[in-house]
């Protein structure tokens, strides 16, 4: 796969209409600001980034060249505990 093919597959915009639709269906009584969906999208991206870093660290500690589901699950537990406070 060349760089131009990969670049075509990457979405450069946040899925704003999808997020707004999910908010309306799940919590119709909420009154959200106009850019709240972008903040939720950013929060999801940051979580995935932290999950990937922590999973890579777990795999490196176990001297494993491939990240498997056990590494991801352990990383998710750590990240969720940190986010709770």
From TrEMBL:
<keyword id="KW-0539">Nucleus</keyword>
<keyword id="KW-0995">Kinetochore</keyword>
<dbReference type="GO" id="GO:0000776">
    <property type="term" value="C:kinetochore"/>
</dbReference>
<dbReference type="Pfam" id="PF15510">
    <property type="entry name" value="CENP-W"/>
</dbReference>
<dbReference type="GO" id="GO:0000278">
    <property type="term" value="P:mitotic cell cycle"/>
</dbReference>
<keyword id="KW-0131">Cell cycle</keyword>
<dbReference type="InterPro" id="IPR009072">
    <property type="entry name" value="Histone-fold"/>
</dbReference>
<dbReference type="GO" id="GO:0016363">
    <property type="term" value="C:nuclear matrix"/>
</dbReference>
<dbReference type="InterPro" id="IPR052484">
    <property type="entry name" value="CENP-W/WIP1"/>
</dbReference>
<dbReference type="GO" id="GO:0003677">
    <property type="term" value="F:DNA binding"/>
</dbReference>
<keyword id="KW-0498">Mitosis</keyword>
<keyword id="KW-0137">Centromere</keyword>
<protein>
    <recommendedName>
        <fullName>Centromere protein W</fullName>
    </recommendedName>
</protein>
<dbReference type="GO" id="GO:0051382">
    <property type="term" value="P:kinetochore assembly"/>
</dbReference>
<dbReference type="GO" id="GO:0007059">
    <property type="term" value="P:chromosome segregation"/>
</dbReference>
<dbReference type="GO" id="GO:0005654">
    <property type="term" value="C:nucleoplasm"/>
</dbReference>
<comment type="subunit">
    <text>Heterodimer with CENPT; this dimer coassembles with CENPS-CENPX heterodimers at centromeres to form the tetrameric CENP-T-W-S-X complex, which is a subcomplex of the large constitutive centromere-associated network (CCAN, also known as the interphase centromere complex or ICEN). Interacts with NPM1.</text>
</comment>
<comment type="similarity">
    <text>Belongs to the CENP-W/WIP1 family.</text>
</comment>
<keyword id="KW-0158">Chromosome</keyword>
<keyword id="KW-0238">DNA-binding</keyword>
<keyword id="KW-0132">Cell division</keyword>
<dbReference type="GO" id="GO:0051301">
    <property type="term" value="P:cell division"/>
</dbReference>
<dbReference type="GO" id="GO:0046982">
    <property type="term" value="F:protein heterodimerization activity"/>
</dbReference>
<comment type="function">
    <text>Component of the CENPA-NAC (nucleosome-associated) complex, a complex that plays a central role in assembly of kinetochore proteins, mitotic progression and chromosome segregation. The CENPA-NAC complex recruits the CENPA-CAD (nucleosome distal) complex and may be involved in incorporation of newly synthesized CENPA into centromeres. Part of a nucleosome-associated complex that binds specifically to histone H3-containing nucleosomes at the centromere, as opposed to nucleosomes containing CENPA.</text>
</comment>
<dbReference type="InterPro" id="IPR028847">
    <property type="entry name" value="CENP-W"/>
</dbReference>
């Amino acid at each position: 796969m060349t760089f131009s093919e990969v670049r075509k597959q990457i979405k450069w915009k946040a899925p704003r209409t999808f997020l707004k639709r999910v908010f309306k269906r799940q919590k119709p009584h909420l009154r959200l600001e106009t850019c709240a969906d972008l903040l939720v999208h950013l929060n999801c991206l940051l979580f995935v980034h932290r999950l990937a870093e922590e999973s890579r660290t777990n795999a490196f500690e176990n001297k494993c060249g491939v990240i498997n589901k056990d590494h991801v699950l352990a990383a998710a537990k750590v990240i969720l505990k940190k986010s709770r406070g």
